[in-house]
UniProtKB/TrEMBL annotation:
It comes from Roseibium litorale. InterPro entries: 6-hairpin_glycosidase_sf (IPR008928), 6hp_glycosidase-like_sf (IPR012341), GH15-like (IPR011613), Trehalase-like_N (IPR045582). One of its GO terms (molecular function) is hydrolase activity. It holds the Pfam family TREH_N. This is Glycoside hydrolase family 15 protein. Gene3D superfamilies: 1.50.10.10. Residues 15-157 form the Trehalase-like N-terminal domain. It comes from the Bacteria. The keyword Hydrolase applies.
Amino acid sequence: MVWTPPVKMQSSLDLAMIGNCSINALVDKMGSLVWCCLPRFDGEPVFHSILGTRGEEGDGSFSIELNGATRSEQEYVPNTAIVKTRVFDDEGNSIEITDFCPRFTAKGRMFRPTAIVRRVRPLSGHPRIRVRCRPRFAWGERVPDQTYGSNHVRWVGNGLTVRLTTNGSITYVRNETPFLLDGPMSFYLGPDETLTDNPERLCRDFEESTELQWRHWTRRLGLPLEYQEAVIRAAITLKLCTYEETGAIIAAATTSIPEASGTERNWDYRYCWIRDAFFVVRALNSLSEMETMENYLRYLNNIAAVTHGGHVQPLFGIGLEEKLVEEFVDLPGYRGNGPVRVGNQAYEHFQHDVYGQIVLGAAQAFFDKRMLHQPGLDDFRRLEQVGERAFAMHDQPDAGIWELRTRARVHTSSSLMCWAACDRLANIAQNFALEDRARYWRERAEKIHAVICDRGWSEEKGAFVESFEGSDLDASLLLMAEVGFLPPKDPRFIATVDKIGAELRRGNHLFRYRAADDFGTPENAFNICTFWYIDALARIGRKEEAREIYETMLSCRNHVGLLSEDTTPSTGELWGNFPQTYSMVGIINGAMRLSAGWESVI
């Protein structure tokens, strides 16, 4: 029988993410594993084919291919991070591939190895499959050495060894020989360790335990009445972007998927931005998922310990690495869109909103009695150092929330978050009955508030503007009501929302700004900005309009409910790093804001 390659079906980031809070991976619609970094989120990818290859097609991927495949179906097992891909040909043959990363409680702790399980079984007919596992090291530059045993293949090199253990034929796997699949087969890809049981039995047991773990986790979420499936998928995805060992939260799983075709807006988002992490924590808190906040506070405390109330860079590595030097690697890029970047120059930036995000990220813990480790006065004193820095920087130029590389201004949104730092410190001090400190921070917050209202408001524009004494609009100003700077019905906020809608909205999508920046004029809408606009509309009483836009955004999700960073307004095509935590946060926040209450049905 002649081998017929499967039909290519990927478009618009048709990918599913699996993970276990130690590693993650992306699986395409035909069941090929096309992205996975080891030994952690920001490590070198052993599978990188989503960014192209340096060799032949198939390098940097792990595929289980059905001969003559013509179509596929893919979905998550409900309420889990387990992906099922069913692949069909036109002759009545079909297979099902199950992908997941083990995650479950064992021996009193969470078992989350740096491993991927792939299981395949025949569904109908007499399917003939080929297994192609081609890890590549050093960003595709190195083909690893290969050794093998009776039940495993090892790839060795560049300081890393990866072992694939299976109950299938090692000869067929090594030689990529097509064969008839006459029963279930499992593949355990992970560290260079011998499995303690038969691979098929072990992987089946791991699947059952992982499914149960995720179902128990989901069951504890406090969900809105409406949009529950979208919220559950968003919550699980956010959880998969948390690195539990340190508490860090990455902005996205990928690097260098561009914001639009043909642009150089290609960034590495596999690090922890304090800003993005705060929004993740806030969204999961709204669902009563407290564990992520507790873990993240450990990470924040370590940042505070090394910065001592001084400058805080906007992002760190997930192991608290400070220097994230940006470099280029020699890969073609997503759909041929280079460059491919490793590291992120933003670690050198001054972005003064970070001080507010630190305090905001920690604030709930001082009031929430569910916390296992209730923060005390020492924690408050440490946050006060951050607040002092916020007050000192509230009217100083910075790179801003959008990380402009060649221009510094006093950005209104940065000053807004400095205000939020002082405001929340006043609340925390009040909670500790520290009247003097509460008054101290309230006075500082009032001073910043007055400065923003004076210098951030443009009479000519009739709205708040992106920088002091400026004239451009910026979608981040929509956060004014969310953080409590102005009441939603304040005429100045309503006017700002209206102006932003008039200038930045395209259809049911919102741009972050329209003025040219370091790389020209933005071409695609920024998904989190659309969600901020939805929230603002709902707050000022335009709830039906907000619902219409929200449901447009839900329709832009890919086939398994995930969103990237950007969307092309005219087509709904997804661009930017994937899945983007900012965007998944917006799904949760929109549902919580717009859903009818449970009291309407029970």
